[in-house]
Write a structure and sequence with these properties.
The complex is a heterotrimer. Chain A is mostly helical. Chain A contains two helices and no strands. The mean pLDDT of chain A is 78. Chain B folds into two domains: 30 residues, no CATH class; 449 residues, monomeric porin ompg (Porin), CATH 2.40.160.40. The chains are: A mainly alpha, B mainly beta, C alpha+beta. At the B-C interface, helix 1 of B face helix 3, helix 5 and helix 6 of C.
Chain lengths: 71, 480, 295
């Protein structure tokens, strides 16, 4: 549990640290499709479905998306 | 001029000019801005080794901008699932079919065959609420022979810090109902004979239970062979003339009712919530951190899965019972994702830690390397590593005369296991707005084949089925 | 300000003069009220920007900055965005695009004659050129004495895109806004038609075409030295000056036309191309933009 909390703090620190100096024109790379958090939504949905039906864990990326009887 | 790279100038200028005009992207000043529909279609084929489960799936994601940042996305899906899935019955060294002279033990895994078609659709509606805030409302529905699901979701996103930080919060709910093939929801943790006992005296409805492949070993055969005669399974077979119910131990046929027994259904409700933070760390790096919490309640048991009762000394199977899981589950997860842009290539990395009140703890590591090979072509190797600990009530089998636990399941998906997937995606851009892609993934699941508490003959058997699967996907994206 | 129906093309045409150029807006609609409204909107905004950033007006932002005699000036949000943009272009071009280089006009007068300035005169001016000498910390600007800012290199394209933004807020109808050759097209004409834009032949007369662009949407800008140059001893001196040397960029194309997503972007890409001299064509090819270089 303690390692989990440490990890959360580390991630948050990392997230909020380097964000100081990103100018609007520095967002050129981020606009590309390959830089999106989910660049291929269909691939992602298909994978999630396969792993949901073969494993005990699920989700994490967002809410919604639909259910099925495969678990 | 020394620049960071040739095409960076253009990209940088586009971004700079948008900054000068105070707009998010050039499409803001265009009229009838981006009225093209984006379509992502895919065909997927999933096949497990030994001809177990096979799934063919077709899906299309259609995204239509409605103007002013409003978008509607519709995703219909059709799955066809066939094959046989492990019932949970423990590996046996007894032959699963009748033989006369051949005494060589054939170690067979008890499987249950099935065939099903699933239709599903999700609709999402994204709406900007003001310059910095957006909401997404979603609805989903799915139907298959034995399972129906209805769901709704709502997510709110707000930008801070010059749009470098985004906070999101979402909630979703779903209502599912299980109507097992055969029309009866069996009693949990009950010997098979009594589990399916027909209770109702005033029947309404119709039995419907199809066997797709009678040549494959299935529960009924397992029971009619060397197991003690006290076990019997009540099952129904559709015939052209209506429902007939027969008992499976030797062929006595008793016609109970002609086509009218109430089909039983069980419901399951889930509510899930999520809060997330997305942060632009620097020009090349984007990160996301999400915390999710979900509660499910209702019928969470798998009506088709059984657990073997074994003799405490010899390890031989003496009986089968249906499984039973708790009627509530509290799930939580932390998900972290990082996207990093190298010179041209991009790395996607994510880690998820999941835990629930069934005792399951799991770690998932996912890595994709987007390798740019040319203006129109890229290759993406993919790797995924997954581990999970067993659910508190997971048992590969139960000793027959021991005290029964309150809940028990032998479903391999609740056991301690590891899964590794290796994949490769190739994609080719066609023209300005289309892309064709192919993806192949090899997934291997392994578990504890020789657990410490194996008894007698079980020690000589591989008690964890394991899984080898190949997933092949073809994709085509275009706009119209 | 005029607003006329162009029968042959089936659209309205609003026209006026601004920024020392003929300005027009073509409106793909048969609604005269809309045409009037948009023409008024566009001419008002163009005038506003001209007056705010003109070097010649005493009450403009540019004059306020140029007469600050080394004092720190607080600029407004719009000027701040222009300065940020100029700063980014300065860095992206390795210092070859520089809004402090306007004072070179004191040595160079491109009237087609052979009066090339002396190296000493140019060197003296270089003392007062260099964006890196300017202190710019949004919203405070400090210009060393003797230096001047000139928004001429981005003003017209900025005005075109600003007008496009205002039109977009007023209507979904497609418009083509053209200020002296720098233009923005907001969308396809009725029936998914293209707007047809002719590229002027720099060697020919006013209306002779050297090429045609067919566009549904986007900005177009042309950079060229066809009319402004000096000619001495067989050497042509283009009016595109390198702010680091003070001398014209050698061997640049007669005209560069670029089509991009906005007029500002097209204009800056055309300028960068010119600053590349002989490499103009290669530069534009690497940027994957629709372009036309005429040598």
């Amino acid at each position: 549990m303690r390692t989990l909390v440490a990890m959360i703090i580390a991630c948050s620190a990392l997230l909020l640290s380097g964000c100081a100096d990103v100018k609007p024109w520095d967002r050129d790379l981020l606009a590309q499709k390959k830089m999106q958090l989910v660049p291929a939504p269909v691939d992602n949905a298909l994978d999630e479905h396969v792993y949901f039906s073969k494993e005990a864990a699920s989700g994490g990326q967002g809410v919604g998306g639909g259910g099925c009887g495969c678990n | 001029m020394q620049l960071e790279g040739p095409s960076c100038v253009r990209a940088a200028l586009t971004a700079a000019s948008c900054g000068l005009l105070g707009i998010a992207s050039p499409s803001v000043i265009a009229s009838a801005a981006g009225d093209a529909t984006q379509a992502d279609t895919a065909l997927l084929y999933y096949a497990e080794h030994d001809g177990r489960v096979k799934v063919s799936e077709a899906t299309a994601r259609l995204e239509q901008p409605l103007g002013d940042g409003e978008t509607v996305t519709v995703t219909p899906t059709v799955d066809v699932i066939t094959g046989a899935s492990p019932t949970g019955a423990t590996m046996s060294d007894k032959p699963q079919t009748f033989t006369t002279t051949d005494t060589t033990p054939a170690y067979t895994l008890p499987l249950k065959s099935f065939s099903d078609r699933r239709y599903a659709i999700t609709v999402d509606w994204q709406q900007p609420l003001d310059r910095l805030t957006r909401s997404v409302l979603g609805a989903s529905a799915s139907t298959e022979k034995d399972y129906n699901s209805l769901g709704a979701s709502a997510t709110l996103m707000r930008d801070f810090n010059n749009k470098l930080t985004t906070l999101s919060a979402g909630i979703s709910g779903s209502l599912d109902s299980v109507e097992p093939a055969g029309g009866i929801v069996p009693q949990g943790l009950t010997p098979l004979a009594s589990a399916y006992a027909v209770a109702s005296a005033a029947p309404t409805g119709y039995f419907d239970y199809e066997y797709e492949d009678l040549s494959r070993p299935h529960i009924e055969d397992a029971l009619t062979t060397p197991v003690a005669a006290s076990t019997a399974l009540v099952h129904a077979i559709t015939t052209a003339s209506g429902a007939v119910i027969t008992t499976g131990n030797g062929g006595t046929s008793t016609s109970i009712v002609n086509g009218s027994i109430a089909r039983q259904t069980k419901n399951k409700e889930s509510v899930d919530g999520m809060i997330g933070l997305t942060q632009v760390v620097n020009r090349r790096t984007l990160m996301q951190l999400n915390y999710s919490l979900g509660v499910s309640s209702g019928y969470l048991t798998d009506p088709y899965k059984i657990i073997s009762m074994i003799n405490g000394t010899t390890g031989e199977t003496v009986d089968y019972r249906t499984e039973l899981r708790p009627d509530s589950r509290l799930r939580q997860s932390i998900y972290w994702k990082a996207v990093y842009h190298l010179n041209e290539d991009v790395i996607h990395f994510s880690y998820r830690y999941f835990w629930d009140d069934w005792g399951i703890r799991s770690n998932t590591v996912d890595l994709h390397y987007h390798f740019v090979l040319g203006d129109d072509f890229y290759v993406e190797p993919q790797f995924r590593y997954y581990t999970q600990s067993a659910a508190d009530f997971y048992h590969h089998s139960l000793v027959d005369v021991a005290v029964l636990p309150r809940f028990a399941s032998a479903d391999y998906r609740l056991a301690e296991m590891k899964s590794t997937s290796y994949g490769l995606k190739l994609a080719l851009a066609i023209g300005k707005d289309s892309e064709v892609s192919a993806r192949v993934t090899y997934m291997k699941q392994t578990g504890n084949s020789h657990p410490a508490n194996a008894i007698g003959v079980q020690r000589t058997l591989d008690l964890y089925p394991g899984l080898d699967a190949v997933i092949a996907q073809l994709g085509y994206s275009f706009t119209f | 300000m005029d607003c006329d129906w162009v029968e042959s093309a089936g659209h309205w045409r609003g026209s006026f003069s601004c920024m020392a150029s003929p300005c027009e807006i073509l409106i793909d609609s048969d609604d005269p009220n809309l045409a009037q409204l948009l023409t008024k909107l566009v001419s008002a905004e163009a005038l506003r920007i001209e007056q705010k950033y003109s070097r010649y007006r005493e009450d403009s932002e540019t004059s306020k900055i140029n007469h600050s005699a080394g004092q720190t000036v607080r600029v407004d949000a719009e000027t701040a965005r222009l300065l940020d943009y100029a700063d980014q272009c300065y860095r992206l071009s390795g210092g070859k695009f520089d809004i402090t280089s306007g004072i070179l006009r004191k040595a160079w007068r491109f009237d087609g004659s052979d009066r090339v300035p002396s190296p000493a005169a140019v060197a003296a001016l270089l003392e007062h050129i260099g964006w890196s000498r300017v202190s710019w910390q949004n919203p405070l600007l400090t210009l060393p004495p003797g230096m001047e800012l000139d928004f001429g290199g981005i003003g017209k394209e900025y005005a075109v895109d600003r007008c496009a933004l205002l039109c977009r807020q007023a209507t979904l109808v497609s418009t083509l806004i053209n200020f002296g050759g720098d233009m923005y097209i907001s969308g396809p004409r009725h029936g998914d038609g293209e707007w047809i834009v002719g590229i002027n032949d720099p060697y020919g007369s006013e209306n002779k075409q050297a090429g045609i662009l067919r566009l549904h949407r986007g900005g177009v800008a042309t950079s060229g030295d066809a009319r402004r140059f000096l000619f001495k001893d067989g050497v042509r001196y283009s009016h595109i000056l390198d702010p680091q040397s003070g001398w014209p960029v050698p061997d640049c194309p007669r005209s560069v036309t670029v089509a991009a997503q906005t007029c500002i972007e097209a204009g800056m890409l055309a300028t960068f191309a010119m600053l590349h001299g002989t490499q103009a064509e290669d530069f534009l090819k690497e940027q994957h933009v629709v372009h036309r270089c005429i040598w």
